[in-house]
Amino acid sequence: MASREAEINSESPEIGASSAGVADLWFDLPPGFMEFDLNEDAEARMLRMVDAVDPIFATATPEQKLSLIVSGEYILQTMIGAGAEHVSSCFLRMHDGELSQGTLCVLIERPDVGPPNQDRRGTAKRTAVQWREMYPEAEVGLVMLPYGIAAICIYEQDLQMPGVLFGLDGDAIPVKVRQMQVCLPLKTSPGSALFIFMSQDVDHWDEYLDVLSGIMKSISSEETVDDNHSLPDGPE
């Protein structure tokens, strides 16, 4: 995936590539999101994250900072292994003044076989049905975005982080996260873009929904340019 250099600001990453060599879609990253170079060495990335986390979470204990960095890297590696084309992390100051962190991932899922064109509405409906069966406790539905119809699913899950990542032997460390995933059937070819956002900060989830709504509404089949370089704050 190619995109412009991403600091903590707004960018418009391009995702995927159609058979004509054109990106499948673009979307805007709001202020507070930092895109990762997926080809960067993991050790170098974690050292860079230490430098970024220290001033942002100045009052956090060393253990809390370590947990944030290590769990974030573990999730990132899991996403890279799943074939992610985009991963970004956000550090947002919420309305109550608390700093919060979340992770956004985008994958392109293409069928190996099938017709050259797809029924996008039918694809979204089938995905929603599958998600209702897979996650019976989840909120599942369909939503019409400017790009087109999409299936949406919100649920909580328990991740098991290997204890060795935290310098501990033996048992894994349980981490509860809330996740939103959006399946958006592509206009360019058969297949779908899967947007996944997750955060351990369940208390600020409503504010995250405002942020995520803006990202989803910005998805476009044409490249957009956003020169806003604000400081990383949460929604107005």
Summarize the structure in words.
By secondary structure, this protein is of the alpha+beta class. It is 27% helix and 28% strand. The strands form 2 sheets. It has a 7-stranded antiparallel sheet with strand order 3-4-5-9-8-7-6, with helices on one face. A hairpin with a 6-residue loop joins strand 8 and strand 9. The model is unreliable at 1-10 and 226-236 (pLDDT under 50).
Arithmetic mean of pLDDT: 78
List the helices and strands in order: EEEHHEEHEEEEH
Number of helices: 4
The total strand number stands at 9
**Spatial ordering of strands, largest sheet:** 3-4-5-9-8-7-6
Summarize this structure briefly.
Helices cover 27% and strands 28% of the residues.
List keywords for this structure.
236 residues, alpha+beta, 4 helices, globular, disordered N terminus, disordered C terminus
